[in-house]
Structures are given as C-alpha cells and as structure tokens.
Amino acid sequence: MTKRKELHDGTPFTVSVPCSTANLGPGFDVLGCGLGMRMSVTCTFPESDKGLTVSYNGDSPHTVPLDPSRNLITRTAIQTAASFGQLLPTPMHVAIENPIPLGRGLGSSGTAVVAGVVLANESLGLGMDTQRILDYCLAIEGHPDNITASILGGFVASYKREHPDPAPPKEETIEYKQNYSTLYPDVPDFEAPPCNLGKHLRLKVSPKIKFVVTIPEFELQTKLARSVLPQEYPKADVIFNLQRLAVLVSTLTSDDAKDIDPAVISEAMHDRVHQKYRQHLVPGLPEILSLSYKTLPGLLGVCVSGAGPTVLCLATDNFEKIGQTVVDIFGKHSVDEAPGYEKQKGVKGSKKVGIKASFKVLEVSAEGFTVSRG
Ligand SMILES: Nc1ncnc2c1ncn2[C@@H]1O[C@H](COP(=O)(O)OP(=O)(O)O)[C@@H](O)[C@H]1O
Ligand SMILES: N[C@@H](CCOP(=O)(O)O)C(=O)O
C-alpha cells in the first residue's frame, strides 16, 4: 500500500526497467518474461528555469516526443503525481537511454509506463509499494502481462481483478490546484486506480532456456494488433489454449531436465487466441510458426513476442542458426503484405523489398525495475 516518505532531496536517481516478451504462445494477457535488455531513465535536478525537460537517446529517436506532456514516460509520471494531487518537482531533467525497439512486441510501452510511475514515486516520495505500482501501470497499460514482467523481472503469471478495492481519497496541494491545468493543459487529470487491481506471481524458469528474439524493421502498434482480435471465441479454441497454457507453465518451471522436451514445448506454445488473427499483420508468420526442433535442433518452440511483429524462439542450443532462419524467412516477404501497415509509424521505403530483421539472444532478466541514487 501507500506509505508516504520524505520528499525527494534533490539527489539524482536512475530507474532501470527490463524489456519483456509477453504471451509466450497460449498465455495471451497472462504470461510475460522480463529479458536482459533494459531502458534507463535518469532524473537530475539542475539549476534552471525550464521546468520539466526530456532528452532521448535510443531506438527510433525521431518518433519519441520530447514534450513532457506527450512523452509516454513523463506523461505517465505527471498523471501519477496528479492522482496524488501533486505536481512533479521542478526543475527536473529526464534523460532516457533506450535500446528497446519501439512498437515491436518487446514491451517498450510497458517499460515506459513502469518507468513513469516509478519516476513519480521516487521524485515525490509517494511511498508506493510494488503492488501499488502495478495498480497504476495496469490502469494505464490495460493488460498485465508485459508490465508485470518489467516490474518483477523473470517469468511472471498475472491476472487483472474485476472487482478491485477502492482507491484512497485524493488530497490536493494548493500548488497542484492552482497550476496543474496551466502547466499541463494537454494531460487529462488522472484518478488514482483502484487498489489490488492485479495480481502477479513470479515463476522460476530453467536457466538452460534462452530467448532468441528476431526483430523485423517495421513497427506494429499494440493498439492495432489488439483491434483485430475477436470479441468472442469458440469453446474449442479456449480449451485448446487452456490445455497448452497449463502444460507450458509446468514444463518451463520444472526442475527435472527431462521435462525440457521440445516435442511437448513446441506443441504447448501453439495458440488460437491471438496469433492467427494477427498473422496478416506479420508477413511470413505462418512459415515461421511452423519451424520446429525436427529441422532446427535446440529449438523448443516459436511464438509471436507480445503483440508482434517480433518473433520469440525458446531454445537450448543452436541460437544463431535459429535466429538467422527467422531473419531469412522475413527476408522473403515484404511489408506490403500487411494490410494497414501504411498507417503505422516507422514503415517506409520500397514496399517490395524483403523485410530486414535482426536477432538477439537474450537471457531472462532476474531483476525487475531498479532505482539507483547518486
Ligand atoms: N522509451 C520511451 N519513451 C517514450 N515513449 C515510448 C517509449 N517506449 C515506448 N514508447 C511509446 O510506446 C509506443 C509503442 O508502444 P506499443 O505499440 O505498445 O509497442 P510495444 O510492443 O513496443 O510496447 C511508441 O510508439 C511510443 O509512443
Ligand atoms: N498481451 C498483449 C501484450 C502486448 O505486449 P507488447 O510487447 O506488444 O506491448 C498483447 O498481445 O496485446
């Protein structure tokens, strides 16, 4: 819960947040894993009359707004502070270092939301614990799988509660009442979310398993990838996913090495809830999803990472070969096979040219977000 601490004393601090891979096949909006690629956000308190300022170094620099009211990290921090009836302390400079590719299904928006909530918590000494931070992140992001992985690190299962507990009352400072709408006319006021809105549970995962993520050059915004999903599902498809979800979690968390069985894991990573509805947005996906240990030894299973278009291969060996195979399949396709792609940011150039992609071999990040001072 929330226990107010002393206000921040002006010491710089850095929030570091791991990226995530969400869903892991059948675990749509349920499973996530924090991976070893981290964004860092450093807050300093310089002598200046510029108020709140932002700088950004990293992926897609021209698409990330530096206006604090539009930047997802600072906007989230402004709104979190507002829900406590407070303004962020100023002057404050927020320096973002971000290697996580944007709009690719590696949880960049989740990491940004986590960083924003933690930034407000630290700079104002709001005293939110991990559960309360989760409540805020979940209220903003909407689904728990990617944010819980970024909050806790490791392999995480989560759910969102339908009947959470009431939020505490808001106490507004005079400064907030007088200045919020003038300072941030474009940031709608934000009510504190209900308490215990979600639950997350950290699971262990065998250290033998590595996460080969193959990242195509084009973006797929999560909002678009969610808009193509149906409102209702056939009973057979729900059962299909539930069966695989239970088996997948059991095998990945087993202490017994013989449970890391590619024949079982490859089948258990199949999904009928989101991937088939999104496959027209990710050219080459049917061929990629048909890869298996039978032709690629070491490969355990394949799925879309988050909402895509990145592809996740779980593997115990042969990582480079596996990553390159997926890169080559993307290269046989072009972005114009994906209807609606032209509405997205970041898709440019000749449409008929094969999709460029690169792969990374990532480990599970044992740590979730961290805050370091000084
Ligand atoms: N570090 C960041 N700073 C500011 N905005 C960010 C950052 N990371 C992500 N975003 C915002 O989130 C959007 C991508 O979110 P989303 O479509 O959910 O994709 P992803 O799968 O990467 O989470 C970006 O276009 C950008 O607006
Ligand atoms: N369960 C969500 C996960 C979105 O993850 P992201 O990495 O694409 O932000 C979904 O599949 O929509």
TrEMBL record:
GO terms assigned for molecular function: ATP binding; homoserine kinase activity
GO biological process, one term: threonine biosynthetic process
Enzyme class, spelled out: transferase
Record has Amino-acid biosynthesis as a keyword: yes
Catalyses which reaction(s): L-homoserine + ATP = O-phospho-L-homoserine + ADP + H(+)
Occurrences of domain GHMP kinase N-terminal (ranges): 71-154
Keywords: Amino-acid biosynthesis, ATP-binding, Kinase, Nucleotide-binding, Threonine biosynthesis, Transferase
Matching NCBIfam families: thrB (TIGR00191)
The protein, known as: Homoserine kinase
Species of the source: Rhizoclosmatium globosum
